Amino acid sequence: MSLFRRWFKGNQKTDTSTDGVKMSNGATIIDLSKSSTSEYDESKALKIEAVYSCLRDKSETLGRIPLNLYEYDVKGNRKRVTGGRELRLMTQQPNDYMTMQEFLEFLTMSYDRYGAFYAYIVRNDRGKPAGLIPFRYQGNIHPSMDVNGNVYYVYTRNDGKPGDPFRLEDLFIIKNMTTDGFTPLSPIKQTANNLGVAYAQEQSYLEMQTNGVTASMALATDAVFKDDNAYNRLKNDWDKYKGPQGRGQVPILENGVKPVNLKLTPVETELLKHSEFTITRICRTFGVPLHRVGFGSDKAQDVFDLDEAYFCNHIDPIMLKIEAALNKLTATNTRVEFNRYAFYKGSPWRLAEKVDKAVKGGLLSINEGREILGLEPILGGDVFAIDNNNVVYGTWDNLEAVKEQLYGPKPSNSGVNNNAN
Predict the structure, then answer these.
(1) Is 386 buried (19+), middle (13-18) or exposed (0-12) by CB count in 10 A?
(2) What is the pTM of this model?
(3) How far is the C-alpha of 75 from the C-alpha of 366, rounded, in Å?
(4) How far is CA 114 from CA 138, 175, 310, 334, in A?
(5) Which of these ranges, 7-16, 103-112, 156-165, has the smallest mean pLDDT?
(6) Which end of the chain has fewer surrounding CB within 10 Å, N or C?
(7) Burial class (CB in 10 A: 0-12, 13-18, 19+), 347
């Protein structure tokens, strides 16, 4: 194929202008020595498609799960709080410019980027919490410990100078695991090598799509072009079919040409395989199933099982930390709790299935189940399934009366000699 050799003869040079990428003879390979993984940071990581997809899915998943506020009496019985300042602050609007959903999305994003989330606790004249103001630059918070064992936090200002230290009780903190008890580990920094490779692979793929031939077929010949005008004309026409604009187009060549298929080179094919493997590793880092970023199994049952494991192993642990941190700020007789059934709202029939099992199992009353499904309460719906065999509904204080009505009175043991031989 002398024609292709002649066209690309002048391009046989190495270009290392992009991080971790070499282009040689039109093919693209990854140079890991140039990936600068030791200097990989959180901002650069968001430019990787898989990282952005994982963080978006995780933050949106947790952000859409609502918080409820409950009030407890001296006997431990609870009822849901439906109004008041504390309800608004803890479940609806933690500050003047964010809803609770936006607050939780920002929290989750910061948690997975920097390993922690920090917000300043605004207090009123009585010392009660009046707002939660997240720090704009979460990466500028640096925890430390003084000689007396007191943990404090310093916020580095934009001019690079440290600000006044914050006490532990001044901040609302959700942090990842630590090695010293107060300094969180950033998932991105801990996996910088893998993310550096992923960034280099995306740059390689960008170069392949930008300068590679994306037409589905071409015409070629082994003949030598003696007419420079014909050669230049064909070369100019060929340039039109490079990159994305060549999709679906058919290049027209001259001088006894014949059709040939244009396929990915072995190097390019290997690049795509390595990219898929890297995506798997990134998803494992953030605990997000592959199918939630467009890879992996699409079978319904597999997806449901993976979603259950995703919620149990990676979403619920963060929710428990948030509940514990919020409950430090609530009154002594109130508690904040996530409505975990809301995880299934994306699939209404799955939500209905979970609620149906809870109602028939006596865990929820009919009206509690209807509330989770977004339905209005009904008269007489505050009853539980107190007999699971035939699903009989009633209230627990009337259990014996309902059983007597269904099965008759209990047999009397009077007049029976239990010691008779």
Answers:
(1) middle
(2) 0.69
(3) 23
(4) 7, 9, 21, 31
(5) 7-16
(6) C
(7) middle
